[in-house]
Amino acid sequence: MRDAVVHQLLQALGSKKVSTDAADLAATSHDTWPVATTWAKLGRHPHAGDVLVRATGEQDVVDVLAIASSASTPVTVRALGSSVTGQPIPVRGGIVLDVSGLPHTCQVDDVDLTVTVSASYNGGALEDELAARGLTLGHSPQSLYRSSVGGWLATLATGQFSSLYGGIEDLVVGYRVVLATGEAIDLRARPRAAMGPDLRQLFLGSEGTLGIITSVTLKVFRAPEVRLVETFAVPTVGAGLAIMREQVQSGLRPFLSRFYDADEARHAMADPDVTTPVMFVGAQGAAGAAALEMSALRRIAEDHGATSLGEAGAGAWMDRRFDFSGVENLLATPGGYAETIEVAHTWRHIEAFYLDLKAALEPLADEVLGHFSHVYPQGTSLYVILLGRATDDEHALDRLTEIWRTAMRVGLENGAELSHHHGGGLARSPYARASLGDAHLLLRKLKGALDPAGILNPGKLGLLD
Ligand SMILES: Cc1cc2nc3c(=O)[nH]c(=O)nc-3n(C[C@H](O)[C@H](O)[C@H](O)COP(=O)(O)OP(=O)(O)OC[C@H]3O[C@@H](n4cnc5c(N)ncnc54)[C@H](O)[C@@H]3O)c2cc1C
After folding, report:
1. Would the pLDDT of 1 be above 70?
2. CB–CB of 78/97 below 8 Å?
3. Using CA atoms, how far apart are residues 309 and 150, in angstroms rounded to an integer?
4. 152 lies in a domain?
5. Do 240 and 217 share a structural domain?
6. How far is the C-alpha of 225 from the C-alpha of 290, rounded, in Å?
7. 41 and 67 co-located in one domain
8. Residues 256 and 275 grouped into a single domain
9. Is residue 87 located within the same domain as residue 122?
10. Which of 60, 85, 101 is the endpoint of a domain?
11. Is residue 364 part of a domain?
């Protein structure tokens, strides 16, 4: 079966795009999920594909899907591999379809304020090109420079300035997607459409299980005239959550709203002597309007007992906001492990959930840090970072497994959303049914309708093969 598929791929696409080289298959058998990077450290590749195809155009995607469908061979799409939950890991082998080489096209419409790019476009490269024209995406994940635009849609990504701009679901105008059955479909709403359901939502967060996105149109925004930031020392976690809630529910739209518990505040401020929780707040726009908004944000913070520390802490964080080296350096040391888990809950329940989650995770790492960084009128995300050192990498792997099991259990017990933006992947696939409840039936029906042979990224989102 495998040889026949490889033969057909070679015939259709040519030898430059098709590889069965062991090093290529090993390199595409893991992503940036700490469990997978630890496998790689141990020289293990438990989930390698059988053949790697490097697509250089939409027709390649169509050809691969036609061959895979007729042979019922799995196809796992991979873009820049920055997933931290094992999303592009080909757990059932088959074809790994690398879409990072789709031709890089970029069209800016400065009347309608949109940009249309190939799905493979690197987010940071796009933001830099837009900045040169006085524009911005508004979407700024920490992985901006190591993730693709198509990847953002496929994972329902969100960025550091989401309290103003929203998540990727708020920023998408339209996109083009190739179905498992080979049809290429354009989905769009310009600026809004009510002709039936908003079908653009279908593939957002689908993690390569329902279709393959080839090009994307996003909103863009004029760069703000000014950005103001301020740092606050906050007496307690409860006070910080009350500040964030009041700020977002009063209609203020800070572009930056991040609140760190005392454990993470030391890292956020790059100062080991910090002992209280810390909040970073930012307002942007026309100069006078931003200053007014900042004074309203400050008043709310001070009403809840926060004290301004000036702009330095938040300003320094803005300069190093894409830096992930703390986690990466620890992961690179023998026995070192680090994990990031993001969840969400309503304002009513978030503090109790935070306390439960921290208490349950504390025995599993040397440091358990917590912050809240994506706020909505109805609730907030909670992001937990775990840092530890085990006796060796094998034990580190055991720890990571236990961390996931514990975090997902506590999330379910608290009725929380099990992922805020990193998605399901291999890490959360076993919990997808429990997390979605009845809605998982809808996902299974959609999967059956759009991918009847079940070839796209099998083994994810709790979808059975
Ligand atoms: C340091 C670091 C910081 C991060 N910070 C953030 C953050 O702030 N916010 C956030 O949301 N995420 C963050 N992430 C997670 C990650 O960057 C995002 O999930 C990103 O959207 C993945 O994009 P990618 O191009 O790397 O996709 P990949 O990792 O290659 O793939 C991810 C998933 O999307 C699917 N996919 C990729 N491209 C396509 C396509 N064209 N069509 C269909 N399916 C596709 C794959 O099959 C896979 O299931 C971070 C990751 C790292 C390592």
Report:
1. no
2. yes
3. 39
4. yes
5. no
6. 9
7. yes
8. yes
9. no
10. 101
11. yes
What is the DSSP annotation of 350-361? HHHHHHHHHHHH
Residues 6+ apart with CB under 8 A from 255: 161, 163, 164, 165, 224, 227, 282, 283, 284
Distance CA 125, CA 108 (A): 14
Alpha-carbon gap, residue 118 to 157, rounded angstroms: 17
d(CA 64, CA 72): 12
Same domain, 42 and 95: yes
Angle formed by the axes of helices 237-249 and 347-361, to 10°? 150
Kindly give the distance from the C-alpha atom of residue 272 to the centroid of ligand 1, in angstroms, as a whole number: 32
Whether 150 maps to a domain, the answer reads yes
User: What is the CA(163)–ligand 1 centre distance, in A?
Assistant: 20
Overall number of domains in the chain: 4
Q: Give 415 Cα–ligand 1 centroid separation in angstroms.
A: 26
The pLDDT value given to residue 2: 81
What stretch of H or E contains 84? Answer: none
Ligand 1 neighbours (beta carbon < 6 A): 31-32, 76-84, 87-88, 99, 119, 141-143, 147-148, 150-152, 154-155, 157-159, 207-208, 212-213, 324, 421-422, 457
CA atoms 306, 307, 310, 312: torsion sign: negative
pLDDT tens for 339-396 read 999 999 999 999 999 999 999 999 999 999 999 999 999 999 999 999 999 999 999 9
Q: Which atom of ligand 1 is nearest to the CA of 148?
A: 25
What domain range is 172 assigned to?
Answer: 106-222
pLDDT in tens, 158-186: 999 999 999 999 999 999 999 999 999 99
Over the stretch 186-206, which tens digit does the pLDDT of each residue have? Answer: 999 889 999 999 999 999 999
Specify the pLDDT at position 465: 59
Q: Does a structural domain hold residue 356? A: yes
- Residue 245 Cα distances to 157, 221, 301, 379, 383, angstroms: 22, 26, 11, 8, 17
User: Distance, CA 47 to ligand 1 centroid (Å)?
Assistant: 18
Cα(61) to centroid(ligand 1), Å: 19
Peptide linkage before 34 cis (omega within 30 of 0): no
Pairing of β 375-376 and β 18-19: unpaired
